Amino acid sequence: xxxxxxxxxxxxxxxxxxxxxxxxxxxxxxxxxxxxxxxxxxxxxxxxxxxxxxxxxxxxxxxxxxxxxxxxxxxxxxxxxxxxxxxxxxxxxxxxxxxxxxxxxxxxxxxxxxxxxxxxxxxxxxxxxxxxxxxxxxxxxxxxxxxxxxxxxxxxxxxxxxxxxxxxxxxxxxxxxxxxxxxxxxxxxxxxxxxxxxxxxxxxxxxxxxxxxxxxxxxxxxxxxxxxxxxxxxxxxxxxxxxxxxxxxxxxxxxxxxxxxxxxxxxxxxxxxxxxxxxxxxxxxxxxxxxxxxxxxxxxxxxxxxxxxxxxxxxxxxxxxxxxxxxxxxxxxxxxxxxxxxxxxxxxxxxxxxxxxxxxxxxxxxxxxxxxxxxxxxxxxxxxxxxxxxxxxxxxxxxxxxxxxxxxxxxxxxxxxxxxxxxxxxxxxxxxxxxxxxxxxxxxxxxxxxxxxxxxxxxxxxxxxxxxxxxxxxxxxxxxxxxxxxxxxxxxxxxxxxxxxxxxxxxxxxxxxxxxxxxxxxxxxxxxxxxxxxxxxxxxxxxxxxxxxxxxxxxxxxxxxxxxxxxxxxxxxxxxxxxxxxxxxxxxxxxxxxxxxxxxxxxxxxxxxxxxxxxxxxxxxxxxxxxxxxxxxxxxxxxxxxxxxxxxxxxxxxxxxxxxxxxxxxxxxxxxxxxxxx
Length: 678
Ligand SMILES: Nc1nc2c(c(=O)[nH]1)N[C@H]1C(S)=C(S)[C@@H](COP(=O)(O)OP(=O)(O)OC[C@H]3O[C@@H](n4cnc5c(=O)[nH]c(N)nc54)[C@H](O)[C@@H]3O)O[C@H]1N2
Ligand SMILES: Nc1nc2c(c(=O)[nH]1)N[C@H]1C(S)=C(S)[C@@H](COP(=O)(O)OP(=O)(O)OC[C@H]3O[C@@H](n4cnc5c(=O)[nH]c(N)nc54)[C@H](O)[C@@H]3O)O[C@H]1N2
Ligand SMILES: [Mo]
What we know:
Elements: E1 3-9, E2 19-25, E3 28-34, H1 52-56, E4 66-68, E5 77-79, H2 82-100, E6 104-108, H3 121-129, E7 133-135, H4 141-151, E8 167-171, H5 175-178, H6 180-191, E9 195-199, H7 205-208, E10 212-214, H8 221-234, H9 240-246, E11 247-248, H10 250-257, H11 262-269, H12 273-285, E12 289-293, H13 303-316, E13 326-328, H14 339-343, E14 355-357, H15 361-365, E15 379-383, H16 387-390, H17 394-401, E16 407-412, E17 424-427, E18 436-438, E19 445-449, H18 462-473, H19 484-492, H20 498-504, E20 506-508, E21 528-529, H21 551-556, E22 559-562, H22 578-584, E23 588-591, H23 593-596, E24 606-611, E25 614-622, E26 630-633, E27 669-674
Helix pairs in contact: 2-18, 4-13, 8-11, 8-12, 8-13, 11-12
The structure holds ligand MGD (2 copies) and molybdenum atom.
Residues 13-14, 139, 171-174, 177-179, 199-202, 204, 218-219, 221, 294-297, 300, 562, 564-565, 567, 569-571, 666 line the site of one ligand MGD.
């Protein structure tokens, strides 16, 4: 028997981006483990990714190209050869492009976070073609826009330094479920006496293990941040020197914050005023104080403003002076990725194709041609994403994908909800089968992923599929012939030692320890911008849908619904892995006993959840994890593996956030009833 250990990286959309070691016996991957030497992975993987071989060798893996024979969405296909599939796809795309290439739209997100299998050859292909460009907003763009406005980029603390903090606010994040390796670091701090406070409408498993849980109403974080500022001002807990030297716009933001005494904040957030005051006192006095802010709060109308307000806090107290103080939302901006080399926007030449927002794909697929919109969407090429399950307002998304006149190509591992609507379904390799390099949005190491096994069946890497398509389209620029390793080398350019990366598995970027101790934010003038000229100081922006902001709607749909990820799924990935699905059980809606009782809903009852946009069937979990008035529809199930072919995105809307054009998944009013009581 031959046995080798291959250095790899977890490809999934998660801040942890773990370094992995894959054990291969006689050409078969038998085990994946966390790399014990990688500082943030520390030898541990989450339950999901530890099952990566089960996912890779799943008996439903797509192994051959398939062509649709049944009606759209029926999932009926026949096997075809690669040449037949690619010749036909190229011919169809050429015919559309001859009329208007912008009628072709790429649709992709972070099914793999790899820089090679993500937007490298694929982006080159669509740039050369002149296809519509995709605004990749579905996850993080509200928060990213807020950080860009305030700090200049998506940058923050090094995650390791939270171990030395004395106060950690875990704000809008269920770290145990979605950022496990940060949680280990927070535990270290806790053992050394740090206080942990979780700010989350849901009493998550993370909230259970913090010293304090503040269960505010969804979409009210901006008000809470203003309330904290108010307390910092009236108690003079400010670092005047830091504000003076390293920020702009405090006078304007200060005037705004003075309008937010604790009582006003408490009413909006649905908590006690003493809680606001106590939180402010802790934040000012337990130093160094660090904030792990995450995406929970930015999936509402005012998500951008909320993140701007929270990002101002460590500038006001000077928390940045210590490496264990400050804030981390995303570390993406620390990675010296050469996206122009990867994506080659120069291939567009003088063209500036229209931009389609991925978060409104449902509505956009249903739009006719118009001067404002441009051509009707005629073709969609989907890779690294499962929009039929994850995009908001499923009814429109499904109606769009079901259009008989839409030509849809899907590159996938499995027959997902989206794959069912493909005209051609092309089998892609998994992380064990292809080469890649990675950055991370939760730490500051670059990682390599060496292929551990040969591709299964006829699966090909995304890059190779686009390479072969490019050849058929007659795209002959040398960049279409770059190998995956060559692209990997271009990803970080001269900023890292690529050979060391390939040898060691990961390298740390050279960065300052306490990045903003002396200011030096990556803004135009090096100062944090608290009230930039174009936007002014941020204010609280109420949700589109809440009892306070939309009372007429709330009379019909009185419950606010959030839909955070289930712990054993990764968005909609892993839902088809049986051992993980059996842990999650079935699609659940958590609701508080006070909301269940008057509706006659018992724990375990089948319920329907609905609003004007749609209807979702699931099972009630009556639990105090939900706060009164807020229900929790844990995401994101495959529709066809859920009940009645629905998932939680039946209910969510395509309205966008105040900054970043992002979706508002957690800004959603619903009503719930037991299934047998119409
Ligand atoms: N196991 C697992 N891990 C994942 C994912 C997954 O699906 N499963 N998804 C990955 C992806 S794509 C991402 S973007 C990250 C997301 O990472 P996070 O943003 O940390 O996501 P969650 O852990 O869902 O944390 C969001 C928390 O915010 C809470 N929340 C909802 N609305 C509000 C609000 O208005 N205010 C506040 N303060 N809190 C609110 C929710 O109850 C939830 O507990 O996680 C990644 N990691
Ligand atoms: N209601 C609700 N909806 C949500 C969210 C929520 O919290 N609530 N979260 C949102 C967030 S944060 C995000 S990031 C999005 C995520 O949405 P998506 O980015 O669509 O993520 P996944 O659902 O994980 O689907 C990724 C798909 O990519 C495929 N894939 C993986 N690797 C490869 C590869 O190498 N090649 C190819 N061709 N395919 C590959 C996987 O098999 C999987 O089917 O969902 C959003 N939707
Ligand atoms: Mo995400």
